[in-house]
Design a protein that fits this description.
- The protein is of the alpha+beta class.
- The chain has a domain at 257-379: endopeptidase fold (from Nostoc punctiforme) (Alpha-Beta Complex).
- The protein has 10 helices and 8 strands.
- The protein has helices at residues 82-95, 99-115, 123-134, 180-186, 200-211, 221-231, 235-252, 260-271, 293-302, 312-318, and strands at 21-26, 31-36, 320-322, 330-335, 339-348, 351-354, 363-366, 374-379.
- Strands 3-8-4-5-6-7 form a 6-stranded antiparallel β-sheet. Strands 1-2 form a two-stranded antiparallel sheet.
- β4 (330-335) and β5 form a beta hairpin.
Length: 382
């Protein structure tokens, strides 16, 4: 049950310390992922008042348990040719993944799907990692060439955790930011030549081999979480990769192109994962460094050129109600007849991004829990 009052009308309610849980699914070229929190305490009414300053997130708020996930399918054509090319072109356009990177991820999926079928590696996992690390090689204004290598080599990029600490691994490099230890142990060339860490095909194949190591089955949530953690254990990286994988998996299994404004809003929210909860926050920086729950959803849709009401309650009463949430829909909690107190942004696979409450960062949650006060979903777009 979400317990956030996000506007100056009410004091934020307290709840127990965060425990991140992750659930992830990868099946024969597909990933569906999930993260959830420990159950919240009972709600208690509070008078309108300004909240106390937000404490920093607890250093103990680390993943401790991963439930089993539900499998889903997104199939990659196994043979290169007209069908493969058409699929890669369509998917790359829908998800704004450069075609050269998309081909590298898909080829690795097909290759390791034959070599290690029990791993259930998905292009979605590789693409989510590529997006989170270097924006598929486009970091610093670069792009991958036809040979799969950026014109300027991609060196070590800064990685931070939820608490703002730099946790980058020295000498990590390339389009997937593979560490020296991962590269040394699992490096392999996709073309049969000398492996090149800067090449998207070699980097994807090496990352895939690392993810599948130790007999992991990435269709199991615990194995997926362990696999991605082995590449980079920072929770901020994990949550952004997880959210991106959910979005890619949701779009990838559809037969129609996604609404670009919805994708813009969702991608905005993913980019804000890790910022602090700030009561009344609009994420403008300075004394307003983060978001409250409706501040995040308002800003996400504003980034896509769509204006919505500012509070969770007014959003609930002004957007179109839907029976089942789809990508980008708003998820509401509270009492419809009296007051809606929390809102999140749906990203597929029963997951949402939200700004939970005081002392917690913007992150990924499951949108339903036992005995919650889920009030319904609404769609800001037509």
């Amino acid at each position: 049950m979400m317990e956030t009052e996000e506007t100056p009308e009410h004091h934020p309610r307290k709840r127990r310390a965060l425990v991140i849980l992750a659930a992830v699914v990868v099946a024969a070229g597909a990933l569906v992922a999930a993260v959830q929190l420990a159950p919240a305490g009972q709600q208690a009414a509070t008078p309108a008042a300004a909240p106390p300053p937000s404490p920093p997130p607890s250093p103990d708020a680390m993943p401790t348990e991963v439930p089993v996930a539900v499998q889903d399918q997104v199939t990659v054509p196994e043979k290169q040719g007209q069908e493969f090319d058409a699929w890669a072109s369509k998917t790359s356009q829908w998800l704004d993944i450069p075609l050269r990177a998309m081909v590298g991820y898909a080829k690795t999926t097909v290759s390791l799907g034959k070599e290690q079928p029990g791993c259930h590696l998905s292009w979605i996992t590789l693409a989510a990692i590529g997006k989170t690390t270097t924006d598929h090689g486009r970091v610093n204004g670069g792009q991958l060439g036809e040979n799969g290598v950026a014109a300027n080599k991609i060196g070590t990029l800064e990685v931070r955790d939820f608490y703002g600490r730099v946790v980058s691994t020295a000498n990590a490099s390339g389009p997937l930011q593979l560490t020296p230890s991962i590269w040394s142990k699992y490096q392999q060339s996709a073309s049969g030549g000398a492996p090149d860490q800067q090449n998207i095909d070699d980097a994807a194949l090496t990352a895939g081999r690392a993810l599948c190591a130790d007999g992991r089955d990435l269709a199991k949530g615990a194995d997926w979480w362990s696999a991605v953690t082995s590449l980079q254990p920072a929770p901020l990286f994990l949550h952004r990769t997880l959210a991106t994988a959910n979005v890619y998996g949701t779009v990838g299994k559809n037969t129609e192109a996604p609404n670009p404004k919805v994708l813009d809003a969702v991608n905005f929210a993913i980019s804000k994962i890790g910022l602090p909860y700030v009561w009344g926050g609009n994420g403008k920086g300075g004394n307003d460094p983060g978001f409250d729950c409706s501040g995040l959803t308002t800003a996400a849709y504003a980034s896509a050129g769509i204006t919505i009401k500012r509070t969770a309650d007014t959003q609930f009463r002004s957007v179109k109600a839907v029976s089942e949430p789809a990508l980008g829909d708003l998820i509401f909690y509270g009492e419809p007849q009296t007051k809606i107190h929390h809102v999140g942004l749906y990203i597929g696979n029963e997951q949402m991004i939200d700004a939970p409450t005081q002392g917690q960062a913007v992150q990924v949650h499951t949108y339903r829990k036992p005995n919650d006060d889920y009030a319904g979903a609404g769609r800001p777009t037509n």
